[in-house]
Known about the structure:
Layout: H1 9-12, H2 27-38, H3 50-54, H4 90-93, H5 96-116, E1 147-149, E2 155-157, E3 160-163, E4 166-168, H6 177-194, H7 200-211, H8 219-228, H9 238-244, H10 252-263, E5 268-274, E6 277-281, H11 294-303, E7 313-318, H12 329-336, H13 370-373, E8 389-391, H14 394-397, E9 426-428, E10 438-439, E11 460-467, H15 484-493, E12 499-502, E13 517-520, H16 521-528, E14 529-534, H17 546-553, E15 556-557, H18 563-566, E16 569-575, H19 584-589, E17 593-597, E18 615-617, H20 624-631, H21 642-659, H22 662-680
Amino acid sequence: MFDGGDGSATSRTEEALLSPNSQSLSANDRHRFSMENYQYDPKKSPSTNKLTERIRSPLADTVVQFDYEEDDTGKAKGSLASKYHILQLRLLRSFRSVFKGLGLAAVLILVLWLSFAPADPVSESNQWPQEPKTEASMRVNRKSAYRHKFRAGSSMLGDHRITHGILEVNSDSTVHPIRLLLEAAQEKWQEKVARQSRTLKEAVDEYKRRYRQEPPKGFDKWWNYVIENNVPLPDEYDQIYRDLAPFYSVSPARLNRRIEEASDSMHTFTLKVVEGEVTAHYSYDTGKVESGEQRPNHQVALIQPIAHHLPDMSIVMSVSDTPLNLISWQYRSELMNRDKQEDYIDDEVDRDSVNGHAWACPVSSPLFNSERNKKGDRKDGLLDMEGKTFISDLREYMNICNHPELMEQHGILIGKNPPIESLSPIISLSKTALHADILGIPTEQWVEGGTVPAWSDRKNDKIMWRGSNTGMHYDSTVSWKNSQRIRLVNMTNRAGGGDIVTMSRGAGRGSLSDLADITSWAQLNEELMDIKFTGKPLQCDKRDGTCEQIARDYAFTDLKINHEDALQYKYIVDVDGNAWSARFNRLLNSGALVLKATIMPEWYSDRIQPWVHFVPLKMDFSDLYDVVQFFRPSSSNPHGDDETAARIASAGRQWALTHWRREDMTAYVFRLYLEWARLIAADRNSRNFVYSPDMEIPKR
């Protein structure tokens, strides 16, 4: 169905340098084009509008000020000015000037309070930009004795506090936080599996409870496909709702006009479903666009088994790796607060109004106020116990609004200043939590499971990664040294002198601080790490010396690891490149324990469980050494939990074999395109599903 090829454009860019003067549209050209579009331009001055009059640049050094007449979503509040009735007593009238003075003072106090008050992580900045969160199912309601909620939106796991998806280690605790994270994740996964719908009626009811609307027409056909192909987790398709919810406030006529316009782009291809047959159309030269023929063919193969259940429709997809669409939080809130079936709004946005990722966040969020929220000498837990953290909720960690530090750690964000636009009806292969793209399914490097060595038979227990220095375009105008792949290679090869402090799993009764291990950084790298770039520097500027600097300062090797040798490793790192990592499926299938660093949600993100099927890593890799020391036993680390490592590796492979099949991907796009067909229908109500008991079929 899908040829293995050399991988996605993300992986293929690892084979050639960018060529600024080239006229072709190779993957490298697309990468350069993306970099140019996102490149920060300090000379560009946003045009004045209502929004910029109220609020200065989100990255300004001064404290953000708010207009007292509007809340964070831009909705009008009642005026604070005193209102006087014409029949007021003469005595009260004499104090008019006093009340005016008090009113002005009250306004000033309110402005200062709004400026300095912390964000409410529950009601606003803890929400993903896409939409208000869907409600958790009530079918299973188990209580975790070690998890206690706090009003501020943080929680506790044992003695360790969790805020915005990050566990902050309490060094006085006697319980290793990873042990608690493993237990909590396993419980969460079991609850998710147990609460899934077993009948069409249950699936319809769960859909209506989660999304507060009827399922789309054809939902019964989708359910039949799920049952016949044993597709697991039939309720976990929240990503589709997150992506499509804002479009309900845009008229079908406007969406269809934009689809026609987008289909003419040199950066898109169009899938047309006509009378149950699907075909791909594009106007670009496939010889000049890498994967320009492969990607449309793969998408046709995904849809073809269920095309006869779809109405006639056009689907426009981006042929590029990177996301394209960014809308402001203020406008997203407007879209989300409109009735979903009527009262359409004009969502045309002046492209020159405002630029930058911060505008996709609430004005009280840490990213919007990143300058105000910056902390000096922030510790990352590498050199001492203070500042040690782990990911407890990967989805929350991906919320860049709450984690402005990611802006300096991922190449897709570093130095970028994208324009705020209108909603785009284009399906993209990748996105961040900030982007408004509709997420599709990339198929590059998808593999069917084969035979792999047993965990106990693997001969190499070092932490392995090989790849190119993709991730961004490197030149002297951007701060690339902290980008994800550069940082990974630098940390694990060129740490220099000094010691690293790691937590021990020792069976003592002392605190984590008492039991901490202090080891030479260079010694740990030599003992644990096998991480290097391959080939030569890519996507870098030769003229300003950046390519030469990367080649000189970072570890490269010409020795490639073949497939058989790779299967001998127990631990493999997976890290984003220019966009998503296309290798993840292949790595899970390998039976190794995958340590994954990403900020890119994918179609399966609601259907997989970190700490059960893989181990999540922070994008700065400050947790890498503690994670490795927890799992990997050695003569210097006899308490490493090899048994748990093997169990997670096995669970990850089993998940890939049962949850990432062709049928699982087709089930996702089946449901996505039923939803899309309703959105672009002239009468959306006519595309609602109506349940009947005779539609039920028994589940095998």
